[in-house]
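Form 7-S
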Amino acid sequence: LQWRYCCDFLILSDSAIIQGAFLQAEKLCIPSSLSSLPKADWSRVGRPILLALQEICGLDEPDSRPNLQALTWKKRIVCVVWLKLLSREAREDVEKAWRENPFFSLQNSLPEMNHAVLMELVKSTAAAPIFARFLLLLPRDRIAMELGRLTEHVRSDPGGEDDVRFFLEVWWELWKGREELKSETEETIEMMFANQFARLSSDSPHAAKRLKLDSAEMTASSPNTDILHVLFNALKDMTDLVASTNVCFQSLSISLDALYTSFLITQEVVLPVTEQLDVLCKMTNCRGEIETLNAELIRDAQKDLSASLSPSPFQPSTMKLSEALKIITCLVQFWKDKGLLVVSDPLTPCFSTVRLQRSIQRVLTALDEVPETATETNTLRDLLKSLDLPAAENTPDIQAQVTAVIIAHRMQDYQSFAELFAGQASWARSELWVHCLEENQAAFRQHRTLFSLSSTLMSLLHAENSDVSQCRKLMKIAADIFSALSLEDKNQTLAAMLGLSSRGFFRQPVPYAVTEGFQQELNMAFNCIIQGGGGASAAVSQGNLTTAVSLVARVAFQNPEAALKSCCHSAIFNKGAFSLMAKILQQLPGLKAQLGGKNEGEPKDDKVNAASGRSLLCKCLQDTVRSKSMSASEKQQLLKFLGLLMTPDVMTEEEKKKQSFLLPQEVVNTFVLPSLSFSLQLLHAALSVEATPSPHWVMNCSPFPLLFVLAQLYNQAYRCWEEPADGAVHLRSMDTKELLVSVLTTLGQLVGAEIEAAPSSWSRALFWLYNKIEALDWTVRFHLRPVWGEHFKNEVPSSLLEVCDLPEEDWSGLDLPEYGQGTGLLAWMECCSLSDSLRSTMLSCLSLDRHRPDHVSMFSKGLLVVLTQTLPWSSVSQWERLLGVLRELITSACLSVPFSLEYVDFLPLLDLRQFSCELRLSVLLLRVLQLLCGSSCSDWLSSDGWAHICRLYAHAMRDMMNCVKAKLPLHSSSLDQEVLFVLSQLFCHIQHIQVMMPGGQSEPLFLCSLEILSHYEAVMAAFPESCSHAESDNTRHFFSTITDNLSNQHMKAVLQQKIAQLVSSAA
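Output:
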């Protein structure tokens, strides 16, 4: 097969031309021969060979860019000549060669020659890349030997810059050619060369002796096998051959890159795509070929960049970093002294200048991180920094052109360039940008790239004087790209689009033609779905479903809200379509966005719990339901549609966890809870109407199930700031909780009266209700106390009985896991908040010896902790009861509150006994809020919870202010100074809490602070002698200092403006 393969492309006539050229060159050598040709004679002898190659390859100039035929023949000639030399070294058996060597016919027809012929042939035909590729196929020791021969040839007379360029080109091709060789798998000329070398190396002992370096003489530790050592020392020996700045820069950049990739990095350095583009544009632009920009030019630049950022394939075995630094330092110093490191034209940097800039930048950065203190390091660093190299500039046009070529030809990392290209709004108005998108859609089929493209398209659509036809064309291109994505990528893209806007490309007004075109596409898509299987038939083929999902996804990509509204309309008003619409949406979880925040209709983070917002689909359903009245069958379709969407469905075969498109709590929050409060108000109003004598009308309205449902709602609202259990109704309104308590109490009293009048008639229903209520929180039963009457005892946590002496005939304990040892005081305080009667019972039965200071101290500490636990979940009425409890405990000396007059350096001689309760209560609440705002408790509550705490605290402060004002006689100044002092203390406390409050939930505290200042000002005005000019000045300074700690600048400014008005009338 190898023979046949070779014969297919070895054209006899071309081979005869090559053979004739070599024979003619042999004659020109007489009386010598090609086997002993000196380097100096090649210019005379080699001309026939070069002319023959020019004829075969069709090249006008040796430096022209070769076509495929020329490249193939170059490879053949280099391969044949080199194998000719190797065969002679190995003393190949001719009888075996003609059978196993595919190049035998041409190779055997050529005269004997030496390595000078090979080297000059490679140099003259610009075949250094080919030579390097063949080198990379050889063993490492053989590469070192061949590079040694190359070095000797370059240094031999006559030597010049062309020889140095040839050497540098081979060197760099070795560095950048390794990646391409890794992907070669087919039987090529390179592979045949490698196979022939392997055959010659193993055929005979003579071959092995000559082609394989003797391991005893040339080991891996020998300098001769260290390729880096060979190359660096060869360049050092060629220093005097360099006579131009261009070759000097080329030598330095290659040697610095070799240093960097061999000693200073251990893995590939990955540049950001923007930096890659900048480098590629500079390397391309400085060659002056922008007008004729071609793929090969950019591909070569990419290879150069990759080679300079990847670890060298030839890691040093004997050479040290210091040795390499010393050689490069000597080179730089020598060429600098000769004046070769000065740029002749700084306005137009050449390729070698740009490349050297990059090499120096990389090496200097890496040397700063290397723990190397050698003199060579510092010397080289100083020399490189002293070089003055002009900077090359790029323009957006060049960047766009280069990026487009990379994308069009699928070059290295083209997908990253596609993402960059898609997101460049500054390029988007050019024909090049649109053409590249249209012709290379496959390159943009990643959801991140498409998201960047969508953002750019939005900026074009919403710009002034936008090109309507171009925008429509770009929208179609973007939609076509989206349609070609996998379902997973489509969902990721839809989720990202919803992050921009729920209305996609139409979040702002767009030209009418664009809107009209999209509306036509939307209508056509849903008409096709309905007519193709979205009717009454429940059975939908997989093919039809896949098509329907693609159609809906395509229009949803352009405008999610419009697509979902059409889904909702079809599901409700097209008979039987709800099933197909549900199946379509379950395939598109990317549309499950939560709405909330400042602008209605704008999505927020998907991670937000569904209970705190509503989905875009719920909003669309609401809009659809409100826009048109529904028949009974349409209402049934809505219910079935919602039921299917709430049913967990497996999205993929690999995904084990089942998910639903709509969470049940979303549906409840959207469609049930908004009308729940109104329903409770109606029920409360109906129950408040005076009824006719027994039996009450409510007994005909299923009162016991109604009581149970209300009790369940209250149970779920009891801890309203906590996240609910799965499927639970979430009530975040304390007003609703208050209303529930009122309705429960009123309904319980009415039902209880009827039970008391006829107990035997209702006993079964009563026990049913009691058994149901047992599953709820224990506090719920106390709201139904009128219903139980004398039938059941009061059941409380057993721990309560340890702190409260309650009669056993009326009270019994419950073993509740959440109420363990030490929680009796918590249960006691919860009972105090439930009703006025329970509060009185709890206070009268409290087990506390007020004459024992240790008991009072322990009780006071426990109460502080319990109050911290109870405050956030209390409604306003419950909080008022607890404030009353605290006042009674303080006045009865059961509660010890160590009072420290904070923020006061000097205490006037005042009688504060009348205000002791208010002062102590304010300090107690300050301690409670300090605990709540501390690091151990600050994450307990949501923002709504903190706002509620602020309202409760402000309510308590207003209550204290009213008490203080009530104690001030109308026409007597006996307590005016005391009142001012107490108000100042209250102001200090509330400011301290306002600073601590997390989440900025401090508006109620701010308003309360303003009220305190108004009261302070009113007392000063009513009693001019209460405060001197100096005292009022000190007070203003004192209050201003406290408010300086506020983070809200607006609140701070308003308070300080109010403080400035506190001027004593006595002044």
